[in-house]
Amino acid sequence: MVIDANVYWFPEQVFKDEQLLQRFLAEVPRAYGTVGKVRVHNGKKEIVIERPVGSPGVNYVEGEYELETQLADMDRAGVDKAVMKVPCCHEWLSLEMAKLFNDGMAEYARRSAGRMIPLAVIPPFGGAAAFEELKRCHDELGMKGIQMSAHYGELYLDDEAFEPLFQWLETYQMTVYVHHTPVPVDHSSLLAYNNLRRSYGRCADQMIAVCREMMSGMFEKYPHVKVVHSMLGGGFFTFKDMVVPPETVEKDSAKRFEDNGAQMNRYLAENIFFETSHAQPWGRAALECAVKVLGADHIIYGSSYPVRKEWLTGGPGFINNMEISEEDKEDILWKNAVRLYGAQG
């Protein structure tokens, strides 16, 4: 069995309904340096999100989110099920728009006969009405997880502003999928070059987010919340032993680093997980290193489809060709998704 834990979903009706399209664009936070534009490319509507203006970071293309097309591509790739994600825009969606997305994903899942697994979206600062929507998603729509952004504005998830939401997530024991945003909070040096901004920028954002969550101790309050970070946590495995140092042996004259490695390792074991967000660009050597450092039981396969179709069609084969055990391959390709998202086989 193969579960792709990162297949993007966007409501196709936004492209077809001009009034709905304008509502969606009106919610893009232009006053905070983000702008949404519509263009026609190769005969199809394309919504481009720029942050800042002139620096495109997200593209939604008409026709890429049709269920029949996605299921056919999954069949060609040998993917049995997929976890649906909303790419980036859930950072600013209003409650009204979030409800439209949740209903759309639930309907998509129903039509797919269970092959598509939806995750809830709500505005994290929406108050009682937003938490009521979370309850609806959990109780009525059967969603086992929620999608969040690595940061909202300048606030990462360890900020106290998110405490009311995380209290609900602790109660429901819902998995939190943390999607990268187009750029981290401090990003001026990344803007000049497309690949630096669109690839490394996302990794920098995730790395900051993972470290802040660990170092803040937030999981002491929410021990049952499991957080899944995209982009392998921004390549977190390469920095793990540096930011989570072993306990010091010698007594230093000055205390320059925190001796909380045991606590952070506990969070990494119990609360924090990592999704590949397309396997092939990492390369086999890096992914095999990630398995060695993080453990296959903490890595979830995801393709970021439809950003590049070959990341879906060639992804499972790429994982199966890695020099890791068959048990590790099963963990990455489907077992972890079952554990975290209730994606039953």
Write the layout of secondary structure elements.
Layout: E1 3-8, H1 13-16, H2 18-27, E2 35-41, E3 44-50, E4 56-61, H3 67-77, E5 81-85, H4 95-111, E6 116-117, H5 127-139, E7 145-149, E8 151-152, E9 155-156, H6 163-172, E10 175-179, H7 194-216, E11 227-229, H8 231-243, H9 261-270, E12 272-275, H10 284-294, E13 299-300, H11 309-313, H12 315-320, H13 326-341
Report the principal-axis shape. globular
What is the tally of helical segments?
Answer: 13
| Category from helices, strands and their pairing | alpha/beta
Distance between the termini: 8 Å
Distinctive features:
three-stranded parallel beta sheet, five-stranded parallel beta sheet, globular, TIM Barrel, 345 residues, alpha/beta, 16% strand
